[in-house]
Fold:
Amino acid sequence: MADRLDFFISFGGPDEPWAEWMAHVLEGEGYSVLTQGRDMRPGGNIVHQTQLGVMADRTILVLSPDLFDRDFPASEWYSVFFQDPVGRLRKLVPVLVSDCELPGLLAPIVYIKLLDLPPDKAREVFLDGLKPGRDVPKTPPPYPGVTA
Structure:
């Protein structure tokens, strides 16, 4: 395991396929990623691994109804939220994979929406949403005034 992690992926149990897909995409781009399935192996300590995870540069929170009735993912995102409560560092990045209402502190956080996208478009939207900085269009917008 790297000394510094780029991403930790937190999810509710049934969303593990999404977490694995995201980890595969990120690792393919050269990022270091910690997930339960890949890194919390027999003989290891899940609490220690989770602590390493929440100290990653950024935590991806897989959003679906399956997330909200589980205590461990809640404790993970609470910890990350506490580290960056107004989102200046974008440490907590929610990714919507299934339609759900976002409760309480999650409601105002801008999320990446992968819901109903085909694989190639989902990959593009996912990686684009994780890019640092502002989202400045590559082409200028049309001039809104009179062109005569």
In short: The chain has one domain: 7-130.
